[in-house]
Specification:
Rossmann fold, three-stranded parallel beta sheet, mainly alpha, Tyrosyl-Transfer RNA Synthetase, globular, binds tryptophan, binds adenosine monophosphate, 348 residues, disordered N terminus
Length: 348
């Protein structure tokens, strides 16, 4: 594919290229699997060029234990492969091995405005009340994220709902760069947020996102959980005493029930409407075991594969290194051209 081709939508003049990233700041959850990984695999299967990045530089915007970060990065790579990412067809790598991400992030730090970053809800949430004490990296996080996608001239970015604001900022940054330097160099990315599970909620609180950083392990299903643990967590998931209604409208005020229906739908690749139609009138005493059985049937093989891959860490490191080399071949010329546009002297 060449840059002269036209993407079906989004960024005219740029060949379609998909990029997405996940922070290796913990293990993968069912939220990551349904909201991100499953869709990463679908993009790979559609035949477009796909890059998937373990964003270790983003992870250290809050302190990480070095040994745990290294372990989580490898385990996450294993989770990607076990979920169907084929490192021969997708480019799978960790961010710090491709220097252009941090290089472009610096340039974009100089394009983005303080006010834009100060409005980011993820920063406000993560920094909490004591903003003065947040790392500079946490504040600049969205510029590094914009660099991740822009350094490959990415056109499409599959993410969950929570990343929408960051991608809107990435669009603003690309537009401002092109405008300030009077070029048409960076494509304006399209966020791809779709499917039943763009927001998988906590099993303990249907109003909170399922997250690897939640202090309660019962709030999430990890891709590394075994079958018994998955069943237990679903059995213990918070619900209400009502049976399932016959249509989705009946779930409007029932966030926990709605969440379990959405999870079922996403795991079974059917619509939430079909789930309620099939299970109308069932109480959770019947629905939860059905959901647990489905979850185990999808997740147990992934868990087995992660364990198999983690037995050979050297092979995982080799795959990430190979991915980084291939990523660098795309990013380096774009970075060099960027330096050129902004007026840096480069020895050739
Ligand atoms: P993170 O784990 O926050 O680095 O997120 C990695 C990717 O998974 C992003 O595309 C998120 O939007 C997605 N993601 C994380 N948690 C969830 C969730 N609970 N539901 C849906 N998508 C999620
Ligand atoms: N910020 C994203 C998250 O926490 C991770 C991420 C970093 C990302 N760079 C990206 C996602 C580029 C998509 C594209 O989920």
């Amino acid at each position: 594919m060449t840059d002269a081709q036209t993407a079906p939508d989004g960024a005219p003049g740029f060949a379609p290229r998909v990029f997405s990233g996940i922070q290796p700041s913990g293990g993968l959850t069912l939220g990551n699997y349904l909201g991100a990984l499953k869709r990463f695999v679908a993009a790979q299967e559609s035949g477009v060029e796909t890059l998937y990045c373990l964003v270790d530089l983003h992870a250290i915007t809050v302190w990480q234990d070095p040994a745990r970060l290294r372990h989580a990065t490898r385990e996450m790579a294993a989770g990607f492969i076990a979920s169907g990412i084929d490192p021969a067809r997708s480019i799978l790598f960790n961010q710090s091995q491709v220097g252009a991400h941090a290089e472009l992030a610096w340039v974009l730090n100089c394009v983005a405005r303080m006010g834009w970053l100060g409005r980011m809800t993820q920063f406000k949430d993560k920094a909490g009340k004591n903003r003065e004490n947040a790392s500079v990296g946490l504040f600049a996080y969205p510029c590094l994220m914009a660099a991740d996608v822009m350094v490959y001239h990415t056109t499409h970015v599959p993410v969950g709902e929570d990343q929408k604001q960051h991608l809107e900022l990435a669009r603003e940054i690309a537009i401002k760069f092109n405008h300030d330097y009077e070029v048409d160099f960076f494509p304006v990315v399209e966020p791809v947020i779709e499917g039943a599970a763009t927001r998988v909620m906590s099993l303990r609180d249907g109003t909170k996102k399922m997250s690897k950083s939640d202090p309660s392990d019962m709030s999430r299903i990890n891709l590394t959980d075994d079958a018994d643990t998955i069943s237990l967590k679903i059995r213990k998931a918070r619900t209400d005493p009502e049976p399932l209604p016959g249509d989705l409208a009946g779930l409007a005020e029932r966030p926990e029930a709605r969440n379990l229906v959405n999870i079922y739908a996403a795991l079974a690749d059917i619509t939430p409407e079909a789930v309620v139609a099939d299970h109308a009138g069932q109480g959770f005493g019947t629905f939860k075991p059905a959901l647990a059985e489905l979850a185990v049937s999808v997740l147990a093989p992934i868990n087995d594969e992660i364990n198999r891959l983690m037995a050979d860490v050297a092979e995982i490191d080799r795959i990430l290194g190979d991915g980084a080399q291939r990523a660098d071949m795309i990013a380096r010329p774009i970075m060099e051209r960027t330096y050129d546009i902004v007026g840096m002297v480069r020895a050739r």
